[in-house]
Amino acid sequence: xxxxxxxxxxxxxxxxxxxxxxxxxxxxxxxxxxxxxxxxxxxxxxxxxxxxxxxxxxxxxxxxxxxxxxxxxxxxxxxxxxxxxxxxxxxxxxxxxxxxxxxxxxxxxxxxxxxxxxxxxxxxxxxxxxxxxxxxxxxxxxxxxxxxxxxxxxxxxxxxxxxxxxxxxxxxxxxxxxxxxxxxxxxxxxxxxxxxxxxxxxxxxxxxxxxxxxxxxxxxxxxxxxxxxxxxxxxxxxxxxxxxxxxxxxxxxxxxxxxxxxxxxxxxxxxxxxxxxxxxxxxxxxxxxxxx
Length: 292
Hints:
The chain is mainly alpha-helical. It has a single domain (69-291), classed as MetI-like (MetI-like fold, Orthogonal Bundle), CATH 1.10.3720. Helix content is 78%, strand content 0%. The chain is built from 14 helices and no strands. The chain has helices at 2-32, 39-43, 54-60, 63-96, 99-114, 117-128, 134-141, 153-181, 185-193, 198-209, 211-226, 230-235, 247-257, 261-291. α1 (2-32) packs across α14 (261-291) and α11 (211-226) packs antiparallel against α14.
């Protein structure tokens, strides 16, 4: 009996944390989304009324919600492939680099992932400054016109996305590099003996063996970008004209600035469903690819 209970004792703490900080908040958000809870309801529960699906109906009729969802989709479609491709390229380059430089370079690429977003955004904000920023100084030095990096809606998307990609490649590079270094050298030696060059070995041997690592990086990066918040919040606050307002930032403004907790909770439930659906589709595609 003790032997059977032992695995549950090891799993118990992690499962308890998952229930408390993962499942319970989702259930609470689901319950709050069915009410008209606002700042008055937060102070006195008697002010909270059950309104059913009214918040969801209002969300689906809210143009700002759909615009934020579209902005998030744009960031996901562009940002996820960019991070995966750049991270893979850097990881392969590090894998072929001299061993004495790998540790230094690996640390350099990982630093953005562990640096505070406020500090990072302050630095990038100075770089993007229209009058005194380094980027516009370089452009004017070569005779080009300065760019409204954070004031023009289109360029604001590009600027915020660049910061997010820069921050995101570090952790994924380390994951892919670890996967590369776990590939037995015998495979590459056999390919070399058969006359395969470096490019042929990479595309025919290395990349197929990295399929699971690439899948993992793609899934986690997609989930992170669907919750895209830090960079637009600090750099542009969703502006200009809502061009960088992601769905997470939209829900933050509705919940913590306008104090519409029920409305924001309904949006968070929809975001949760979207993330779950996208993840399930990716898992199904992975399974189908594995079977074939």
